[in-house]
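hey m, so remember when u said the C-alpha cells were messed up on ur end? i reran from scratch. heres the input so u can diff it against urs
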Amino acid sequence: PEHARDGLRLICGDMLSIPIKKEFRQIFFPCNTFSTLHNSYKKKLLENSLDLLADGGWFTASFPNPAVMDELPDQSDLEVEEVIEFPESGTPLQISSGWEKKGNEFTLIWGYDLLRLDGMVQHLEVRTLHYIHSHEEIRELFEDAGFSEVILWGDYDTSAYSEDSPYLIVSAQR
C-alpha cells in the first residue's frame, strides 16, 4: 500500500564501509543474504551496523534453519521447481534447484533451461554459497558484536525458533 512507503528509504551500499552518518531504526537482511557473507566479514558488518543504528534500533536477518540444513543429504540433483513462459514469445523457462554441502558450506544451485521453440536448450547455472552455523553460534556472533538483546524467531510470524522451524530469523537490538 502507498501509506506503507511513507518514511521508508532503501539504501544500497557496501555495509563494510558505508559512509553514511545517519542513525536508522531498522537494518534488515532478508532472504538469507547474511549467510552468503564470508565469515571474516560478518563481525565487521555487525559492528558497522551498530554504528548506523539509533539507540534501541534493530538489526534483523533471516537465515536458513541450521538444524534443517544439517539433516539434508550432502547433495541433491537439480529438480524442476517451476516452468514459466515468457509472455511475448511463449518460450518456456524451466527453473530447477539442487545443492551441495560440505562442512558448514552449503551451495544452492539454480538451473535455468530456456526451452527454445526450435528444440534447442540454453542452460544457465547459478551457484550461491552460504555459510551455515548453529543458532547458538549465530546468537554468540551478535552478542560478541555488542548487541544488547538477541531474539531468535522461527518464522516471520515471530514464533519462537525451534529445530523444526522453517527459518531462523535473528532480531538484535542496539
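this time it looks ok to me. The longest strand covers residues 53-64. if urs says something different then somethings off w ur setup not the seq
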